[in-house]
Structure formats: C-alpha cells, structure tokens
Amino acid sequence: xxxxRSRFSALGVTLCLLPLLGAQAFTIESSVMPGCHERITTxxxxxxxxxxxxxxxxxxxxxxxxxxxxxxxxxxxxDGWTVGLLxxxxxxxxxxxxxxxxxxxxxxxxxxxxxxxxxxxxxxxxHGPGDEQALADCKDYILRELEAALGxxxxxxxxxxxxxxxxxxxxxxxxxxxxxxxxxxxxxxxLQDSYxxxxxxxxxxxxxxxxxxxxxxxxxxxxxxxxxxPHVGGFDGCDAADEDSYRxxxxxxxxxxxxxxxxxxxxxxxxxxxxxxxxxxDDTLAYTAGCTQANAWCGLGPDAEKYMRGCASAPGSSSxxxxxLLGVGLFLSRRRSTxxxxxxxxxxxxxxxxxxxxxxxxxxxxxxxxxxxxxxxVDRGAVNLTLGFRHDVSPRLxxxxxxxxxxxxxxxxxxxxxxxASAYATAVWRWVRLGQVELRTSAHLGACMLxxxxxxxxxxxxxxxxxxxxxxxxxxxxxxIRMDITPAELTLAAPQLQGTxxxxxxxxxxxxxxxGI
Length: 517
Prior knowledge:
Layout: H1 10-17, H2 36-48, H3 55-58, H4 64-69, H5 80-94, H6 102-109, H7 127-150, E1 161-168, E2 171-178, H8 179-196, E3 198-200, E4 207-210, H9 214-218, H10 224-227, H11 243-264, H12 269-284, H13 301-305, H14 319-333, H15 342-356, E5 368-377, E6 382-392, E7 397-410, E8 415-434, E9 437-450, E10 462-478, E11 481-496, E12 502-516
Helix pairs in contact: 1-6, 1-14, 2-5, 2-11, 5-8, 7-8, 7-12, 8-11, 11-12
C-alpha cells in the first residue's frame, strides 16, 4: 500500500483505496468488485443449511421492496435468514455505511481497534508473537459474535431479531434482521478473512504469518520485520481461474461450512455448540511459527509479492473505474482542500469584476422563456430531466414553474429505479453580470411523488421537494437563447414524512437552456 504522507488529503487516499476494498477483506459485491464474501458464504450454506429448528422460520421469503433495494444480489430462492446472513458478512467492511461514503469507510477500515474483525495484526502485534496475538484476537471476536448469535438461552432463539443499520440502494435504513443469521455472518467474515489476510501453507493451509494493514498503510514508523508483511490487495480476490485465489477461496468455503455444521448440531445446547465452534477455530486458525522477513516469509513471500498492486483495482474489478479513481485520488492526495466557502468565492469573483473593469449592471427584464435542463448527482446517484417556464419580474428576480423526472441510480449495485416526479416553483436571484455572464442563486420549493415501491415507503407517496443552487452562471448562446450551469445544487426529495422520513438528498450538476418567447 502507498504510505500516506502528512500532505495527503484523506479524500485522495480514500479514493485510491476504494477500488481495493480488499484493504480489509475478500471483496464484497459492488458494481466494480466481485462478491467474494457473498459467494463463499452462500456456497458454505448450500452445503450445510440452517439448523433444523430454524428451517421453518428461515424459509420465509424477504419482501420484494427489500430484495429490489439490497446493494447485492441474492442467490435464487433466498430466504429472509439468508438476507440477514449476507448483510452480516458484508457489515464488517461497512458498519452500516455505503461503499460511496468514503469518510465513514476510512474510519471503519483505519481503526486500530477493529483489525480483529478481519483477522489482521493491530498495533502492538510485533514479531512472531504478533501472529499469535492477532489470531487469538480474531478467534475471540468470532466467538463473541457466535455468542451474540445464539443468545443467552440453552436453545436457539429462532424468532429473535436485531435492529441493524443497513445501507440500501437509495437510502440508509434500520432493518430488523434475524439475530442468529446476522451475527453468524459477521463471524464468518472474520474467519474467511483469515484466508486472505495471512500466508498459509500450500499443503495443509495452516497459518504461517498474519498480514498488517493499518500500520503498513498509515504509520510512518512501520517496520516490516517487526510489524509483519503488509496487506496484499491481490489476495482479496476469489477468481477461480487463478490457482492461488481458488485455493484460498476453497479453504474459506470449507472452514465456513465446518463452522456452520458445528453450530447446527444441537447436542448439549448452547455450550455444546460453542465448544464445537471453538474446536473448528482451533483447527482452521492453527499457527506454525517461523516465517519472517529474514527467510522471505518461508518462501511464501514471492508468491505474495506478485499480487502487490499498491493503489490498483482488485481482481475482477473494472480497470477503467479503478484507474479513474486512482487518478482522481492521486490528484487530490497531493493537494490540500481547494474548496472555498461560498462567501469567499463570491468575494473573489466580485474583486475580479472590479479589477477587470467589467460592467456590473443588469439588463432590463427580457420577458418570458421556456427552459429545459438535464443534470446528475454522483453522491446519491440520480439523473434529473426538467421542463419549465420562467418569467423576469425585475432585473434581478426571475420566477418560474418546473416539472421534473428524477430517476435514481445506485452505483454500488449498479441498479436503477424510477425515483420521483416533482413539480415546483423556482426563484432566481441575479447577483451580478460580468460582461454577458450572470452570477445567480436559485431556490426551489414544491412537491415530489415516489414512483416505485421502496423499503419503508409506498409508491405514490407525496411529500415536499426543496432545492438550492447556491451559485450558478448564465450566458448567451445566441440572440434569444441562454445556457445556465449550476455546478453545486443541493436538492432534497422527501416523498414520505410519516414514521422515519424517506429522504433522498442530491448534490447535482445541472445544465439548462432558456429560449425566449
């Protein structure tokens, strides 16, 4: 991994890491990454199934709105418990956040206190004993999650649920999930990561050395001999065409299936289940000391080095997307934040006007116009298509009415939905004219209607629509036509306010054309 220097911005580093998300695991499913954790987990579940006493409860199908807004694909015929299991197995990497919420993900992945969730070394896990400490912490974490899954009683509480924060397509929501399945997923994630975050013997897959992510990525005092081999991004793939990836993935499937089978056996109640699970962990996390930097990690080091990619796409990801994010990340990482407060930006523009001697007077009202606009939002994926009418009521003030279609796009799962249809009034305030270029602020107020059935909101729900384009520009393209560009427009569509409000904020770039009539 590239070690960030003090001058690197957090955003640049995070953008660089986004294509990997193997920084902390076998990859989880997104539009640019294969769902290794999901594949491994569903393969193990297909071999073993749910505990006998849970099968009738687990057979209940999830609701269609939930299935349609999950940011990953379910296997055919998946039940409600499988949803909880896969949400859990993804959650170690997300903690309820979306893959596009980069600051939150940086906090999750860079936390020194959560490395055990991924079977990685933490600070203080030094030299050979650090391997054993990392594995012991990982094992303790898995057992705590299994205890939470089983509950306090001697018998499995199949009806127990837990409220979990989940990032769905288009919204973040608290869902009630089967407690057993959710915590079991989190436990399986850590166990599976022990196959991608360690060097294992090629014959028996025993652990020979545990990788270090957080210090190798973030600490200027990182020392490989003391702190351990750095995390290897290429190990996070599960490509069947690659022998090493296939071997690690198959080992993770087998270990996951063994853990599931140990928990399925009801003999001796809760204590018996935990004892059998502990025996599986003792075996699958068995450690043999002696691999160090001095002996090239027992000859396993060169095998790892071929996967070292620094800030590159994880296996199976879109190379174009990875290179784009890498370029943006490196560009931003070498610059301090360039964002200016709005008032400061306006002052700079006004100062430039004075210095250049540009006229600041506004022209007389030009009457009425028809307006068509198109735009998009990336942070909350969406497209906006707008038709409207505008009228100049004074040299500075323009009022209008608009109708808008606003389809939504989830870039993580690469899914789309009809989104909302909106009708709203607009007020445009012209601040200043620089030659033929106007600087303006626009505000919108109206109503929106949800056009599809979403988790927690009904199709046809109607609620308020708000928008603010803090600073935009308008300039002529011809004698009777102008173009306006609003590079940072904030809109809030809230088609349902009952209960927990269903709100979809967007930061847009919008481009419009006004034709005088």
